[in-house]
Amino acid sequence: MSMLLLDIDHFKAVNDRFGHQTGDEALRAVARLCQETLRDCDLFARVGGEEFAALLPSTTEREARAVSERLRGQVALRVIPTRAGEVGVTISIGVSEFRADDDFKSLYNRADQALYRAKNAGRNRVMGSDTATALNG
Ligand SMILES: Nc1nc2c(ncn2[C@@H]2O[C@H](COP(=O)(O)OP(=O)(O)OP(=O)(O)O)[C@@H](O)[C@H]2O)c(=O)[nH]1
To answer: Whose CA is closest to 8, among 92, 112, 125?
Structure first.
């Protein structure tokens, strides 16, 4: 099992530029796109303002990174039609794989640290927790 933590990049700037209501529309569009891309057995939930988590059963970190890369690419390409016009956003994703000695908190913390590195490395990228290397360079 693997965990993904997804966070929309520079979302404050989206709100500032287009307004909070448009920000909400973008949030819903990103959530819908992710849900459509993930499998029925995957669990997808909002865990904060512009942050989402996904739990992928029977999935290695390597596989989860490939899924994340697909999600990232789809969001980056998507033009979101809103009442304020067309909006584009990107997401950063941190990935961790469940280990024998893990509990939910340690699994979450590793994904959160990976997400932090993805943000620091420039955003719009995927980071795994077993390596500091982004899949998409
Ligand atoms: N429209 C809208 N905005 C929200 C919601 N929840 C949180 N936000 C906004 O999301 C923004 C998050 O900003 P930050 O945490 O600073 O991060 P960021 O601007 O996305 O930048 P990075 O995450 O560092 O790439 C804040 O401006 C919040 O007000 C929501 O439900 N709707």
So the answer is: 92
